[in-house]
Specification:
mainly alpha
Length: 249
């Protein structure tokens, strides 16, 4: 009997269908990832007048991107690796890049969902209005920032094999990013911490999203933040791919 090898496009479509089905089955986690930045946005309504709509929106989007990369992507990869999903896919007639492309495409969809949810909540709850160009540029900035947090998640899942340890590590890193990032950006942790946070992964992503919402105010510092975002992503992605093991054994 002749073996039929599927084309690359058919393989990717099949993988996407499987990954989307898995995401749908874990829809409670998806809902939580979307709800957290929206709830924070609603609770920060009083800060819109003081700090500006762009500041509030960018912080909430950054929080959502952090959750996608650290809580969603890395835990999903660790769980499937432990169940032997990747080992079975590796012996299937599909390329390794197709497997990862499918996973990343689903996460890209999550980035868009979270970003749009924050935009809608900002408009209807906090009455924050942005120009069409601002919305479009902010979506692009969110994708760039999301890629950074996905690469951080890749490093964690590359360094740690046990899914439970990955989960606890991601929760700790997520908590550190959010708490230090938010309070540091507000200047509540001292000048030195504020400077460190400004050029940390949290700070650069927050700033490019914020400045993208107001493209007319884009500055050289924002360009440096964008370049740092790409640099962080390249470094973390390279290390995460280098250290990643297809099996947890």
């Amino acid at each position: 009997m002749q073996t039929v090898i599927p084309t690359t496009s058919k393989a990717i479509i099949s993988l996407l269908r499987a990954d989307l089905t898995t995401q749908w089955r874990n829809r409670r986690a998806v809902v939580l990832i979307v709800l957290v930045p929206v709830i924070i946005l609603a609770s920060w309504k009083g800060l819109v007048v003081k700090l500006g709509g762009a500041f509030v929106l960018s912080n909430c989007i950054t929080i959502g991107l952090t959750a996608i990369g650290l809580m969603g992507y890395s835990n999903s990869i660790a769980r499937d690796r432990d169940k032997g999903v990747f080992q079975r896919l590796r012996v299937a007639p599909v390329s390794s890049w197709s497997i990862m492309f499918s996973r990343l495409a689903v996460q890209l969809a999550m980035i868009l969902i979270v970003t749009l949810a924050v935009f809608f909540a900002g408009f209807y709850i906090d009455k924050i209005t942005v120009t069409p160009a601002g919305y479009i540029m902010a979506v692009g900035a969110a994708i760039a920032g999301g890629a950074l947090y996905l690469s951080i998640g890749q490093v964690i899942v590359g360094l740690i094999k046990n899914p439970e340890t990955v989960n606890s590590t991601c929760r700790l890193v997520y908590f550190a990013f959010i708490m230090v990032g938010m309070f540091g950006e507000l200047g509540m942790l001292g000048d030195e911490v504020t400077k460190i946070v400004r050029w940390s992964p949290y700070g650069v992503v927050r700033h490019i999203v914020s400045s993208s919402l107001r493209p007319d105010l884009w500055s050289m510092d924002d360009t440096i933040s964008l370049l740092l975002t790409f640099g962080y992503t390249a470094v973390f992605a390279t290390l995460g791919i280098k250290w990643f093991k297809w099996s947890s054994k």
